[in-house]
Design a protein that fits this description.
The protein is mainly alpha-helical and about 375 residues long. It contains 14 helices and no strands. Helix 6 packs across helix 9 and helix 13 packs across helix 14. The chain is globular and about 60 Å long.
Length: about 375
Amino acid sequence: MSSSPLSGTAPVPQRYLALDAYRGFIMLILVSGGFGLAALAERRPEFRPLAEQFEHMPWEWITFWDLIQPAFMFMVGVAMPFAFARRMEEGATKSQLFRHVAARSLRLILMSQILMSISKGRMHFQLINVLAQIGITYFLCYLIMQLRFRWQALVAALLLAGHWSLFLAFPGAEGPFMSKTTNIGAVIDKFVFGAVNPGHWATLNFVTSTVTTLFGVWTGQLVRSSRTHREKMKILALWAVGCLAAGLAIHPWNPIIKRICTVSFTLYSAGWVLLMLLVFYWTIEVLGWRKWTFPLVVVGANSIFIYSVDMVLRGWLNRAIGVFTIKFEWLGALAPVAQSCCVLLVMWYLCYWLYQRKIFLKL
């Protein structure tokens, strides 16, 4: 398996707490239910600007909430060089590693179907759920990783160019990027699945999301290398600024839209995701501030578990906790925030209970 030239010399066998903490942070935000801020904003309109940062942008541009799925997929990529190297050190052959990757991809896709079907109360096949998208991009990134870095970069560029070209070649009624129900992604979903996905999410997003995961792969190779902290941080910062600048530069022609995962969104979101990782890396690995990360590490160690609990049991937990808290109505306008945080705390404790017993859900 070839590595990126960003990897430096021989890799350093080390566990990076910053990566575990960052993964836990992303998962906590992902299952937070927006911390009840939307309901708070209905009672106190002055909180609307804050609440909007914990909701998806209706179409063009971006909010903080729109960065969570790319960050999740990015961290899957970061973990891949570490996981594959460990398996190879344990004696796994390339054919065994390929079978492992293929089987894991299928399990992720299957799990996404099960969770979405339970959530909807009926059988529901789709490929827009984050686990399904990860299942696809995980497998594709493994294949791309077999190439030399310059060919990996070329494949990434071709994926971005191909996605952009598809939307231009088959524009919808209101243009290639402004048509919510007639863009090429929606047309493909209607042809394959019989309908446009709710919220106008496109299955075709896996094309550009593969590049997001690939950014994670390259970052994992960099972090795993023997370069100094200073060198790693400099490269991460340069890539972050470059991605932000590139995303903004092409925004007038290729709008930043998460729901169809445009090229500009892919680059711009990658820039922010890299900057967030840079903060975690600097704080934890360089400054050595490590104790505060424990609550995040507990969640990061069981990310699939807490995601599944959120998908299937959030409603039940909310009702059950509400029986004893009276949904914190005695707090007035802050009641939904307190209730949402209480549900999140219970989900965190379930992860903590498993963490203490060294039980980790893997796919």
